[in-house]
Amino acid sequence: MRKLLQRLLKRPVTWLAQKFSSSPDPENINASLSQLLENIRQEKNGYPAPIPFDMADGRFIVLSDQHKGGRDMADDFRLTADNYMAALEYYYAREFTLINLGDCEELWENTPAAVIEKNRLPLLEEAKYLQSDRYYRIFGNHDLEWKYAIQQNLYLKPIFGDKLAIYEGLLLTTVYNGKHYSIFLSHGHQGDKRSDGNAFSNWFVAAIWTPIQRFLEISLDTISDSFELVDKHNILMYEWSARQQDLLFVSGHTHKPVFASLDHIDRLAKQLEKAKAVNDAALIQALEEEIERRRLEYQGKKIVKTMAKPSYFNTGCCCFSDGDMTGIEIENGFIRLVKWKVNGKAGTRVVLEESPLFYLFDQL
Predict the structure, then answer these.
(1) Contact 227, 301 (CB under 8 A)
(2) pLDDT band for position 306 (50/70/90)?
(3) Is the pLDDT assigned to residue 220 strictly greater than 60?
(4) Which of 4, 21, 51, 254 would be 230's cystine partner, CB 3.0–4.6 Å?
(5) Would you give the DSSP letter of residue 94?
(6) Across residues 150-159, what is the average pLDDT?
(7) Where are the domains of the chain?
């Protein structure tokens, strides 16, 4: 029966998914992000209150897009799993607060029960943060089902406990030179017709559309499959952030790291240009090797844009094809783009970019 339905429905379902999937639209993105930010600031029902932190000693690690799956060959997380565990152990021991920024689980391709069964160990490691009151979880488009209480109660709360809450966004607030500044965090799918609409469309995607895609074994994620779309989406996210006052914006979704409004691949390319200008052979070789290692992240890029205001950050993802993962650290007055590189079964932390928060706040 499934094979018959696949033959009959795969083409129309694929057409519908592509028609109503990610299409970066400035009006939709601007309206959705602005409304989400306002809802959090006003502490509306169902939205978390702003979270104050001391810039001098606050510690957060922001990770997104693990896409934990069924540990089969289609599971993007399976190569990163040990690396991810090493990172969680590192940050837990150093008393960081963990912010999971969406698409933590891959529910377009897998049932919630299968994902929980195959990923019990990393989920239990995340739950340790919650029990220490150092955990926040955001839903994304691939784990939109976690937005609903019945799914949380059935699958996540048996592991995390009743303290678990899942939100659409967070707002961290701090004071510098007597002035208030904010760090706004959301997954970044806002404005996507297929997973960010009215209450009915959200429910339809989570309860009807996603199970149909799973049953028909159709997985379509245009935002991460299209490099042109990724670039456009990051630029639109940046443009929204640049219009805000005294605010940094951190998102995920695109799987491409951005630090202070510059795509990390573009930053490497600019560093390579400077190294060649001064004929630094050792640095040239190191940068060329790193760019080659990351070639799958930028192959097909058509847009290169230096964004002047350092207001936008993107975590990248925890499911690169070589087992590496990236994230955003906020620690003791600094913000960093870090990579956890596969090193045997464990992982090695590498700082890719770093800036004092006060410098960025001054630029805003």
Answers:
(1) yes
(2) low
(3) no
(4) 254
(5) T
(6) 96
(7) 2-261+312-363, 262-306
E-only strand ranges, the chain:
51-52, 59-63, 97-100, 135-138, 166-167, 169-176, 179-186, 247-251, 258-259, 262-263, 312-314, 325-331, 334-343, 346-356
Cα–chain center distance at 92: 20
As a whole number of angstroms, the distance between CA 90 and CA 200 comes to: 41
- CA 224, 63, 74 angle in degrees (round to 5)? 45
Residues 156 and 352: their CA atoms lie apart, in Å, by 33
pLDDT, tens digit, 9 for 90 and up, residues 319-350: 988 899 999 999 999 999 999 998 766 789 99
Residue pointed to by tokens 């706004």 = 184
Task: Specify the pairing of strand 135-138 against strand 97-100.
Answer: parallel
Quick one: tokens of 107? 């529910």
Radius of gyration of the chain (CA): 20
Per residue in 269-302, pLDDT tens?
Answer: 778 888 899 898 998 888 888 777 766 555 545 4
Q: Which two tokens stand for residue 9?
A: 């429905």
Tokens 């083409």 label which residue?
11
DSSP letters for 164-232: --EESEEEEEEEETTEEEEEEEE-S-TT-TTTSSSHHHHHHIIIIIHHHHHHHT----HHHH-HHHHHH
Distance between CA atoms of 286 and 214, rounded to whole angstroms? 42
313 three-state secondary structure: strand
Q: Quote the CA–CA distance of 166 and 22 in Å, as a whole number.
A: 23
* Residue 43 clears pLDDT 80, i.e. is over it: yes
Give the residue, 13 or 146, on which the prediction is more confident.
146
pTM exceeding the 0.85 threshold for the entire prediction:
no
CATH code: domain 2-261+312-363 is: 3.60.21
Whether residue 60 has pLDDT greater than 90? yes
Measured between alpha carbons, how far is 300 from 322 in angstroms, rounded to an integer?
Answer: 19
Contacts of 23 (CB under 8 A, 6+ apart): 192, 193
- Which residues lie closer than 8 Å to 4 by C-beta, 6 or more apart? none
Q: How far apart are CA 20 and CA 234, in angstroms?
A: 19
